[in-house]
Amino acid sequence: MNIVLTLVTFLLMAPVRAAEWPAACLASEPVQVVIRNDDICALSQVDWERKLLAVFRAEQIPLSVGVIPAIAADTRYKPEAKRHPLGEDDAIVRLYAQAAQEGWVDLLQHGYDHQQNASHAGMAPAKSSEFSALPLAEQQARIQRGRQLLQQAFGVTAQVFVPPWNNADGHTDLALENLGFQGLSDTRLWRFSATGKQPIPSRMIYFDQLDETLEQWYRQGQCQGRLPPETVVILYHSWEDYNDEGPKRLQGYLQRLKDSGVKITTISQALGLIPDRQLEEKTVVLQ
Ligand SMILES: [Zn+2]
User: Fold this and answer.
1) Which among 56, 115, 204, 278 is least buried, having the fewest CB atoms inside 10 angstroms?
2) Helix axes of 90-101 and 46-59: crossing angle, nearest 10 degrees
3) CA of 41 to the centre of ligand 1 (A)
């Protein structure tokens, strides 16, 4: 009896195993995946970032990174909170600048200070915003100031904007168009053109929804037919993996992605802003 109970308990506790997917089944499908790591900033912990970035490098998986130009010490509405410009942490700047120069990390602008504005004070993260409800001039000034800080740190002009909490409004779109941004990544991907903001067939998920997404694509384990084109952006926060299990957890997800054969790209590539590039074969020591 005890053995049966133990076995039942074990089975109930065992994680659900995803179906076995035919190797590289997705390789010829018009679907692709992007990993977007938000919240890199002057308060990121460079030792952990180095370890996690090394996992992407080892798996040869490209990464899009939302960089906060001047993180607020408190992201709740606290106008008096100290701001930390990216340049305060030279080690973080060097780490990501090098990966970007190697061509496998895509640098995006993630807001300005990532703090709730007055009209979102006290709101839960899902409803928070740094930008929504602010006047156009103020939004534009914040975005421009942030872009200049990133330019000073990395020597590149950000072309894609990622609003904190994925929340922005029509004034944000106008500000981005006025400043000549090419793209926007919130819960979908958007490309700015002469005719305005155009959606790219896309959606956003988290890593814990990866198996479910792969199941949808594989259609119950069968490799059949053509899928409609889409780009799935996996929203990742490396700070959640600042623990001893973090790099292993990440490596497991990346391995599943690779095993599926799906094309893994960056947001700038998905938006057609830069041509597809293969990861460089050479090994470069992260500093
Ligand atoms: Zn964020």
Assistant:
1) 278
2) 10
3) 10
Give the separation between CA 284 and CA 60, rounded to whole angstroms. 12
Count of CB atoms within 10 A of residue 72's CB?
Answer: 24
Q: Domain 20-270, what architecture?
A: Alpha-Beta Barrel (3.20)
The pLDDT tens digits for 201-221 are 999 999 999 988 988 887 666
Distance 276 CA to ligand 1 centre (A): 26
User: What are 17-37's pLDDT values in tens digits?
Assistant: 455 666 667 888 889 999 999
Nearest to 124 by CA among 80, 165, 83, 162: 165
SS3 at position 86: helix
Could you give phi then psi for residue 249, rounded to 5 degrees? Answer: -60, -50
User: What is the distance in A from the centroid of ligand 1 to the CA of 137?
Assistant: 22
**pTM of full prediction above 0.85:** yes
How many of the other CB atoms lie within 10 Å of CB of 57? 18
Whole-number CA gyration radius for the chain: 20
